[in-house]
Every structure is written in structure tokens, then in C-alpha cells.
Write a structure and sequence with these properties.
This protein is an alpha/beta fold and about 230 residues long. The protein folds into two domains: about 120 residues, Rossmann fold, CATH 3.40.50.2300; about 70 residues, Arc Repressor Mutant, subunit A (Orthogonal Bundle). Helix content is about 40%, strand content about 20%. It is built from eight helices and twelve strands. The protein has a five-stranded parallel β-sheet, sandwiched between helices. Strands 6-7-8-9 form a four-stranded antiparallel β-sheet, with helices on one face. A hairpin with a 2-residue loop joins strand 6 and strand 7. The longest helix has 15 residues.
Length: about 230
């Protein structure tokens, strides 16, 4: 991973923030830091980071993904949430529902955090020349760009990754547990509507620009792409 990757560190605990900023800089990252939610959005707009480390409230993640009138930042910027010390499986699910790419509970090991940062950055910037085509749908993984009938479609990170996974084998039915494991990183699945809610939003966005909804729910099994007749 290039050492020039820029990180936005939003960490409310000053000691933790200073520790992470110092070591991340030593590891070759460019770091801007803030301790509050408003500062996170301001820096996301001004600094245009490659990745956000979010230790502030989860609502900031939702605001990053949805955007706000009169403000401009990369709504697809990868986000790793640094969970609270008392975080549990519910907090993890809520983080992914709000658009997080990864979740790391406290206390965490610094080396694991760096490994996760590099892994998320790799997924956000795959090798060039990787085009996935399915019907009218074209995914340029190098540019992280989705077009349908020639029209560009902006998608949050997890909706994009779900679509890429389905388009990688357009005729295959992907089981729910496989999608939750490989797209969201869930180890213990339990009861969650995360996949269904993301698939529903993705289907609505695709249906708005195409007569084909593309994302088909195979009841009791999982999801697959539905190609034009």
C-alpha cells in the first residue's frame, strides 16, 4: 500500500488520538486529526482523505454516507469505526448499517488496526483493468465506478461491495451467510437484517434507472443478479 495514503482520525480521547496520530505518521500515513463530529465533516470536505478512522458517534458515519446540502465530500470514503470499550454485536451491526467498512472494538492492538487499514484501502483501490459486466450493468473496479445504461450510479461502500460480489458470478445464488461473511466480515451471524436492508436499498436504486431490478432475493437461500431478458 502506498505510504502516501491520507487518513482522517476522528478520536474523542486526546491521549488515544495523539498515540495513533504519532504511530500512523511513523508508518508512512498522512494524518489529520479531530476530536469531534463537526470537525470530522469539515476535514472530510477539506482534506479529502483516503480513509476515515471514526471513534466519534456513529451518526457521523451516516452523515458522511448521505451527504448534506451545501457540503461536498467523498461519500464513498472508506470508514473504519473504532468501537467503544463496551461495544457488543449490536454496535457492530449498527455501524455497518450506517455505512462502515470495518469495525474494531476497544481495546485493540495497534498492529491489527494498521492491518485493517491497509486491507480496507486495498479493497477500495483494486488493481486496474477489472471490469465486471452483467446486462446493462458495468462495474469498473479500478475506478470504483458503477454505470447502468451508461448512467453513473453513486453507491455507498457496502452496497457497492454487495453488487460487486453478486456481479462476480452473475448466474450464481449467493447464500446469505456467505455474503455476510465476505462483504461484512461477520464471524457469528445470528439474527440480522443488515444484508436484507442493504439489498433492498440497492434494488431500489437500480430500479430507478433500469427496468431490471437486478438484485433478486431467492427466498430462504440468498441473493443473485437478475439479468435483462
Amino acid at each position: 500500500m502506498p505510504s502516501s495514503s491520507s487518513l482522517l482520525l476522528a478520536e474523542p480521547e486526546p491521549e488515544t488520538g495523539l498515540f495513533l496520530e504519532r504511530h500512523l505518521r511513523d508508518d508512512g500515513f498522512s494524518v489529520v486529526r479531530t476530536e469531534d463530529a463537526d470537525g470530522t465533516l469539515e476535514l472530510a470536505e477539506r482534506a479529502r482523505p483516503d480513509l476515515v478512522l471514526l471513534g466519534t458517534e456513529l451518526e457521523v458515519c451516516r452523515r458522511l454516507r448521505q451527504g448534506e446540502p451545501g457540503r461536498s465530500w467523498n461519500r464513498d470514503v472508506p470508514v473504519i469505526v473504532l468501537g467503544r470499550a463496551e461495544a457488543d454485536a449490536v454496535d457492530r451491526v449498527r455501524a455497518f448499517d450506517r455505512g462502515a467498512d470495518d469495525f474494531l472494538p476497544r481495546p485493540f492492538l495497534y498492529d491489527e488496526l494498521v492491518a485493517r487499514i491497509r486491507a480496507v484501502l486495498r479493497r477500495a483501490s483494486p488493481p486496474p483493468g477489472q471490469l465486471l459486466e452483467a446486462g446493462e450493468l458495468v462495474i469498473d473496479r479500478a475506478a470504483r465506478c458503477v454505470t447502468i445504461r451508461g448512467r453513473r450510479l453513486a453507491l455507498p461502500a457496502k452496497e457497492y461491495e454487495l453488487l460487486v460480489k453478486l456481479a462476480s458470478e452473475p448466474t450464481r445464488v449467493f447464500a446469505k451467510d456467505e455474503l455476510l461473511r465476505e462483504v461484512w466480515g461477520f464471524r457469528s451471524l445470528g439474527r440480522t437484517r443488515t444484508l436484507d436492508s442493504h439489498a433492498s436499498r440497492l434494488r431500489r436504486k437500480l430500479s430507478a434507472v433500469s427496468a431490471t431490478p437486478y438484485v433478486l432475493n431467492e427466498w430462504g437461500v440468498g441473493y443473485r443478479l437478475m439479468l435483462p431478458a
